[in-house]
Amino acid sequence: LSPGAKMGCFTFIKVMMILFNLAIFLSGGTLLGVGIWVKVDGESFLKIFGALSSSVLQVVNVSYLLIVIGAILLVIGFLGCYGAQKESKCLLMMFFSVVLIIFIAEVVAAVVALVFTGLAETLLAGLVTPLLKEKYGVDDTFTHIWNVTMTEVHCCGLNNYTDFNNSKFYETHGSFPRQCFGVSPPLAHPHLRGCLLQGCFKQILEEIKTNAGVAGGVAAGIAALEIAAMAVSMYLYCRLDEK
Fold first, then answer.
1. Which architecture does CATH list for 100-242?
2. Do residues 77 and 25 touch, judged by C-beta distance below 8 A?
3. What is the membrane topology listed in the Swiss-Prot or TrEMBL record (predicted)?
4. Distances (CA, A) of 84 to 28, 73, 206, 218
5. Which of 12, 27, 55, 129 has the CA that lies 20 to 30 A from 21?
């Protein structure tokens, strides 16, 4: 290619890099804002987006998840957009490094999810079960999220009803949550008559497996975008030496 064509190609890729990362930056800011909103006024958020309450994300703290994802997207968007606009090799390398770290983390998480599902369940139980014992029946937003989840998914607790043993809710009411009782045959324990024995984790895992094709397609698309972003940032980084 002639020098003019090379410069035109460089300018085009630079502009696309700026626009792409500007979109990421704005998306990150939106998610961060929504996460803060959920944290500050979770009840209003749930009233507006009640239909989403049965999603997989209800087993974790949605506000913190949105804040973390939003903050990461803000950093990535800023590094990519400002680095390309200022033609800063330092910022472009930082952008490449951050995206590479995220890409590696996603690959590792995917391998762990596929190979060590039992381990993932153990780790999740270690995080969520203590929250159920401490916050269910005490924190209104947390309780509402879990009530809707257990009702929609037809489950009880993360692993099963024993997640509520020795919990603040059980100590106060002397029974398991109303959402845990279905139409199954009566059991020996008076508090377990008709109790749904399956936990939400296994039910959600089955739903994920059912929609594995869609999830895999989305994951592949995200991975392709990340690889493209790294390739473009490295192209700009290398071309700056030639200018």
1. Orthogonal Bundle (1.10)
2. yes
3. Multi-pass membrane protein
4. 18, 16, 43, 27
5. 55
